Amino acid sequence: MRAIVPLLLILYSYGCCTAQDGPRIVGLVLNDATSAPLGKVVVLVRKSCGDLFGAVTDSKGEFSIPTISPGKYDFFLERAGYLSVSPYGSPLEIQPGSQSLSVTFKLIPQGIIAGRVTRTVPDLSEPLHVRLWKTTLNRLDWAEPQEPVPVEDDGSFMIGDLAPGRYLLEKPGQALAEAEVLDVMAGTEIRDIQLTARPLPAIRLSGLARFPTKGATMIEAYAYLKTKDPSGSWVPLRRSTQISRKTGAFTFTSIPPGDYRIVARLTVRAGGSSQKYLGVREVRVQEGQGVTYVSLDFTPAAVIRGTVSDEAGLPAGSHEIYASLSPDGTDEGISDSAVLTTPKGYRFQVTPGRNRLFVSNQSESFRSVKSIWFNGRPYMADTPLDVPSEGGSLEILLGGPEPGREIAGRIRDEAGRGAAGAVVAAWNGQGAWAYVQADALGRFTIPRAPHGKLYVAAWENQVTPPLAGIPLALVTFRTAFEGRATEVPALGADRVTVRLTAIPRVASESKVLKLR
Amino acid sequence: MNVSWVVLVPFVICISARGVAQNQPPQPDIIQGIVLDSETGKPLAAAAVDLKIPYSFRRRVRVASIATNNAGAFTFRPAKKDVYVLTASKVGYLSDDATPEKDASLSAGQQRRGLVFRLLREGVLRGRLTDADGDLVAQAEVTAWQWHFAGGQRYLVKSRVVTPAPDGTFRIGRLRPGLVYLSAARSWPQAEYGNRARADASAPTFYPDASDSTSAKPFRIVPGTNIDGIEFRMRRTTLFRLNGTVAGPPGMKIVEVSLCAEWLKRNCRTLSVTTSGRFARQFVFENVPAGQYEIRGYALQPSPTASHLGLAASQLVTVDDRSVDLLVPYSPDPEVRTTIQGGAGLFRLYNLPDDPTPAILRYASDGQVPGAIHVRPGRYLPVASELPEGMHLKSIRSQGTDVTGGFQVTTASVTVDIILAPGAATVSGIVRDGRGTPLPEVPVTVWSEADGPPAFTRTAMTDGDARYRFANLAPGVYRIAAWQGISEGMAQYRQFLSAFGRSAKAIQLVDGAREQIDLSAIDRKAAILEADKLR
Hints:
The complex is a heterodimer of chains A (516) and B (535).
Chain A: H1 7-12, E1 25-31, E2 42-47, E3 52-56, E4 62-65, E5 71-78, E6 92-94, E7 101-107, E8 111-119, E9 129-130, E10 132-136, E11 142-145, E12 149-150, E13 156-162, E14 165-169, E15 180-184, E16 189-197, E17 204-209, E18 218-228, E19 234-242, E20 249-252, E21 258-270, E22 273-285, E23 291-296, E24 299-300, E25 302-310, E26 321-327, E27 336-340, E28 346-350, E29 353-359, E30 368-374, E31 377-379, E32 384-387, E33 392-399, E34 405-412, E35 423-427, E36 433-437, E37 443-449, E38 454-459, H2 475-480, E39 486-488, E40 495-501, H3 505-515
Parallel strand pairs in A: 1-7, 8-16, 17-23, 25-33, 34-40
Antiparallel strand pairs in A: 1-4, 2-3, 2-5, 5-6, 8-13, 9-12, 10-11, 10-14, 14-15, 17-20, 18-19, 18-21, 21-22, 22-24, 25-28, 26-27, 26-29, 29-32, 30-31, 30-33, 34-37, 35-36, 35-38, 38-39
Chain B: H1 5-22, E1 31-37, E2 48-54, E3 60-67, E4 73-76, E5 85-89, E6 93-95, E7 102-103, E8 112-121, E9 123-130, E10 140-150, E11 153-162, E12 169-175, E13 178-186, E14 198-203, E15 205-206, E16 219-221, E17 226-233, E18 235-247, E19 253-261, E20 268-273, E21 282-289, E22 291-301, E23 309-319, E24 324-329, E25 331-332, E26 335-341, E27 345-351, E28 355-363, E29 373-374, E30 378-386, E31 391-398, E32 401-402, E33 407-409, E34 414-422, E35 425-432, E36 443-447, E37 457-461, E38 467-473, E39 476-482, H2 494-498, E40 505-509, E41 514-516, E42 519-520, H3 524-534
Parallel strand pairs in B: 1-8, 9-17, 18-24, 26-34, 35-41, 35-42
Antiparallel strand pairs in B: 1-4, 2-3, 2-5, 5-7, 6-8, 9-12, 10-11, 10-13, 13-15, 13-16, 14-18, 18-21, 19-20, 19-22, 22-23, 23-25, 26-29, 27-28, 27-30, 30-33, 31-32, 31-34, 35-38, 36-37, 36-39, 39-40
């Protein structure tokens, strides 16, 4: 019957910011592929207090938001046939007494993948879906599954709103390695894809976990599955199963033939604490086999005991400082994290081998990480850390606030307009890096840039989330753009202002595809 | 497949009968049946038949699924006796059964054979939606409207709503035979858009270029219709802002206000109105296309005596050349007070097509209904649904007028007087088709031929044994007929019935008569032919 609509909806229509004197926001929206003005774009502007203003671009691509009060504003843009961006850049701060502002946004035409699915067994009432995987280079070389898209009764399907990138179209009932590899550029329409839907294979993958300790209390025991994508990278399938704590048995059902990697985690109670184990096993599942059996052995995680201490005279901390230790270059191993509270100690369990320690909030208003020692040797956060299987000890010393260098500036596009929402990064030669996103005017501030000689570069970016498609974490990606970066010398002022020209989106995209 | 199903059915039944007769080893649990193409009467191969266990009113868990063989037949051998239901489906087909889900429960020693499902080829409309400039439209929906028949009335209901694909194309399948009106509308993100009127190229539109269904051009769907290439362009309009203030008694709460397009009655945008703070009792609708609207409001008023009282508002508004400021008064829901003379009974009060769920009026034997019923303004149709054996409805009147055919409730309260009388007649019997096969789950109508009040129409469905029964009929002259291939609602629509004034059987019922009348159903093709003129 009648639905009670939340009160919020109507409250949005009013607000504290209406009918006040203030600057206007005027703007222009362009088609990113053609640079032509784009009409009918709904521009939503939300103030941090929740007020939401709307405007629609006219045929010249222009819009205007009347008289708004000082505050921080987020922009959300949407138009049918283009990728919506929400929010577009970091919040734009409007100071009291500021003049009217002029902003420029660009929208990327959507990519479309469409086709038809034919069933090998006709007409059973099971609804069909197709699934796309988007390859990302954010953290690692892997692919991520998207939400399945239902197939129409006539077998047709269409997936739109695709950002530029490489996609894998899963063939129903077949291994991911058999997927179609599809490169989508701005506005690309790939139609006439023909897929055949086979019934789900009745193959099972069963295993027996050989528990490392007999009779210990099992806190956690599960396994998940990875498979190879068409490029041969191992990607997680988002399928996990419980391992029987009594027998160690586990089963995955309906597995298409192909290569798989089983990754299993155990946590057992050991005395007053717990011990984690990792088990990894590769297996090939072949057509015609009803069940594939494997056994799984486990190796224990290395235990690292740590201490945190404060430099003399340091006030009590106001913010929590987190530390996380995780295997470098793989998502499979055991990782751990802890809140650094002085004078309490902490305990990490990680897969032995190359790891990386990341300390969040490396400097808050009272404290900063002054130095780190691992097994008696100095270590710098966010650089490789070799952990032996017997573990070790980690000492973290917190010191007083460290101002760090602030790098601020303005980014423009090649036509000289403010590069709204561009991603700007500063990195050094030792593997440390930081990034922020520019506001709607192309302004940015990196509050605590890494030490040493820095490269600073900016990339145009109109996709959500902002780092999708810009794999800043990859050293190879960053170094590829060092020629176009602005260099900031190691010594100098605490605050450095730079003017940057954003690297066009197409340039970074083609680089990403080459790296892949 | 040239073998007629009429030949096959007795064959199947014959085999099963023999199986029962021999009965040497213990009978296997078996559920057997056939799926037919409703249009041709021929068996339908490769249809999916699902065996499900009903765990609750809505929840079904599928336990088995099989495809029909080339003779359209299916056989389940469930592992255990249980409560089961069966459904049949096939891509490109719709159920044409009055009850698409059939009971197939198995108890000890029981076998289910001869279940018949009828599927009808769907209609499909395909096209592309754009705005008036040919551009893609954001947050748009395409709605297919079809005539619905209920309570002796005909009205348009949404039969399918689809969101166009990312390139603006749409496909609307599963359409039943009849006229289909297409409409398109878009919605806007909730925000404050400023107080200026704004040109827009995506006004709510009925295909091809109409603002309401009356001047729209419908598509005619017959089984298997497949229309492609519909170019659906939305109209141009101007968007306005509609501001309003709610007026009503102090303490009113849970205030809702709805903006309903005149042509879409139940297609409303609804907002909650705050009753405190700086913007108490104010509301704003943004991006309102020019047109005629009804502002509807609902709220609650605390009552010291009873639970909350309902408050309602209704106001017509034209949005054309300026943004509108409105004052919307809320007043208590009107009352329908009813009296009954001559006995107890149960009546339903329908508010069609606004609200398909009727209000129930249950009279005690003293003729009292506990308290008056508060209803929302609208047109109401009283229908007797349970009367004591031997009683019939003599009249339903309000303020001296016969209101058997319905009455209008505005903001003022009304009194309705119901009079029952003894001497009711009963008619019952079995319905068969032209070949003598019993017809379960088909509608049977008994109606008075005189048009205008008190025109009388009543419909019943035959049960699993093809039996029907009408009780509580007033003495008089009636027509009676049974139907195949049409809905119960159609069987109650007088314009449909009038085409069968001659072919239907005439009956005269005297005081207290108990007639046994077996019926031969009206030919399926003839019924569908007449129904197609109306739907």
